[in-house]
């Protein structure tokens, strides 16, 4: 079992206990509805859930079936994505967005980023949707450590990476 899957399993178990204790807030672990103001945190939380930001920006989120506790959401991922672009790391959005003004966020969200970040999805969001995401991430508050820095293609990354290199299915 990979360490990341093991971590996901541990988080899943811890989360199950936490929920059964009744401590989970609906915004963090229940299903969220797109209510509230169009640029408010409730809608932002909904957008974060349905647009898949946690899949990469939250360690173990996808492996846990989306049940990672809100305390770990968007805290960045130490597992890199390696490909022809070099090695990228899903940023700690809790720290990055805490440092940005609304104007800086709207500008940053519309700039190209390296793969596999779906930056074009952010680019195509309305200003209200982006403001809602900012409000939701600010409500979660700053937490965690910065993700590792980008490693250019001619340098070797340290630690764990996922290789994006297409190869014949039979190759081992
Ligand atoms: C498939 C994985 C993946 C998904 C899904 C994803 N991201 Fe990313 N994200 C990344 C990676 C990798 C980077 C680093 C890109 C780089 O180094 O240029 C990144 C970078 C970013 C940055 C730049 C942070 C900074 O410090 O400037 C922002 C903002 C961001 N992502 C927001 C989002 C949001 C919001 C969503 C959901 C709509 C999302 N991401 C979904 C992988 C992902």
Automatic annotation (TrEMBL):
Family matches, as InterPro entries: Cyt_c-like_dom_sf
Lineage: Bacteria, Pseudomonadati, Pseudomonadota, Betaproteobacteria, Burkholderiales
Signal peptide interval: 1-26
Name by which UniProt lists this protein: Cytochrome c
GO MF terms, alphabetically ordered: electron transfer activity; heme binding
Keyword annotations: Signal
Annotated organism of origin: Thiomonas bhubaneswarensis
